[in-house]
Amino acid sequence: MTRTTEECRRSLERLAENLARADDDVRGAAALHRTVSCHLTDLDTTFTGRLADGRVEDLDQAPGPPAERAQVRLAMASDDLIALVDGELHFARAWATGRVKLEAGFRDLLRLRSLL
Questions:
Q1: Which residues, in sequence order, are CB contacts of 30 under 8 Å at separation 6+?
Q2: How far from 9 is each of 54, 78, 83, 92, 98, CA to CA, in Å?
Q3: Are 101 and 65 a contacting pair, CB within 8 Å?
Q4: pLDDT at res. 114
Q5: What keywords would UniProt list here (predicted)?
Q6: In the CATH hierarchy, which top-level class contains the domain 5-115?
Q7: Of 10, 58, 103, 115, which residue has the fewest beta carbons closer than 10 angstroms?
Q8: Residue 108 clears pLDDT 90, i.e. is over it
Q9: Is the pLDDT of residue 113 over 70?
Q10: HEC profile for the chain?
């Protein structure tokens, strides 16, 4: 079932709230200052923002693939995004099977692994 862009926006906002309320270990891992993008392949829509001090800020939406290359890039179907945020889909399993694509620098991947 394909979700709407509004459902996905709410899910990303909920993820941002969860990061802001997370314990010190998770918040420390998310304390990167990086640009982020999440391309929803089934909706051909991209959400972009900034990860700063354990929060996602300036969340914007645009049609199509990302216009600019973010430092942390995700791509997945809308159902998978919502399942990840709801805790119904384990990130590592989804990444290993290709349901979720993550591109980032090696150092960022090491820091982000505790979030995954």
A1: 19, 22, 51, 54, 55, 112, 115
A2: 18, 10, 13, 22, 22
A3: no
A4: 55
A5: Coiled coil
A6: alpha beta
A7: 58
A8: no
A9: no
A10: CCCCHHHHHHHHHHHHHHHHHCCHHHHHHCCCCEEEEEEECCCCEEEEEEEECCEEEEEEEEECCCCCCCCEEEEECHHHHHHHHCCCCCHHHHHHCCCCEEEECHHHHHHHHHHC
Asked if residues 74 and 62 have their Cβ atoms less than 8 Å apart, the reply is no
Q: Which residue has the tokens 């099977």?
A: 97
Q: What phi-psi label fits residue 100: left (phi over 0), alpha (psi between -120 and 50 degrees) or beta?
A: beta
Q: Where are the domains of the chain?
A: 5-115
* pLDDT value of position 22: 59
| pLDDT tens digits along 30-73 | 556 889 999 999 999 999 999 887 678 899 999 999 989 999 89
pTM for this prediction:
0.83
Tokens describing residue 44: 């051909």
